[in-house]
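User: Hey, quick favor. My workstation is busy. Could you predict this chain's structure for me?
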Amino acid sequence: MAAQDPGESSLVPVERIVGEEHADARLDGYLASQFTNYSRVKLRQAINAGGVQVDGKRTKASYRLRAGQTVSIVLPEIAAEGPEPEDIPLDVLFEDDHLIVVNKSPEMVVHPAKGHWSGTLTSALAFRFGQLSSVGGPTRPGIVHRLDRETSGVIVVAKTDQAHLGLAAQFEARTTEKEYTAIVIGTLDRDRDVIEQPIGVHPYHREKMAIRPDHETTRDAKTFYEVIERFRGFALVKVLPKTGRTHQIRVHMAHAGAPVLCDRLYGGRSQITLGEITGDEETDVLLTRHALHARRLELTHPITNECVEFVAPLRDDMETLLATLRNYRSL
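Assistant: No problem, here it is.
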């Protein structure tokens, strides 16, 4: 399900095994889900040119796949161009010769991808900073880790390749500590708990992940949460993910019966109005993205070896929502 790995060469065929979740998918649609750096038009061109085989045979873009089949593709060339620099405001929390730490705004995509070629964090960084690491490839300069588009908060960026490799090793070894602030909807029956539930790709919704034991895509996942403040029907929660699975916090909180507020995928709604909190006819929209914020990141500075901690204040939309809950939903 992952996007093209930066190490995958356009000269060597890349193989994927079709999972159950993609059974009966069209070949071109399946490839678009696997290689998100490419448009469906480019992938169809590769199919028509004979660059794609299913179980060793050429086929059409409309071919319906079966679970267990092997899809092989010689990927088209992507121009090795970096992001277009754009003068986009950044909330910089820290900067030295090796690192930049940003409080990412909601709705900002971290790096260019299909459907999001401009307005990205990498474009803003390219405009403001003269030097960024090259380890992540030309489309992801400086990017060591990422946050979902709607998630705001702390993200660390590497200026040099040495810093990038040192940071990446820490994220891989899980020696960093990440703390998130979430506003959830529903009632948590415990003040604190550890959720240990394996996460894999959703069986039929390609944008989602799911609690899914014993599947080839499943990985162990562990999340600690603590309720900081309770309201009628809502709660403010501190969350510390102990693993780094895709959508982990969102999947685990939904599993606990209190999905992140305004989480379209896992909570069934994408916004909340003032009237829904106050109980009157007010139609002002308070929040239009999931209420999740990367509050704190603690790690070892990759050059000085000092323990450093970066804290990002809540963005205005979540602050306003929290103030409204305190005014109208306090227990």
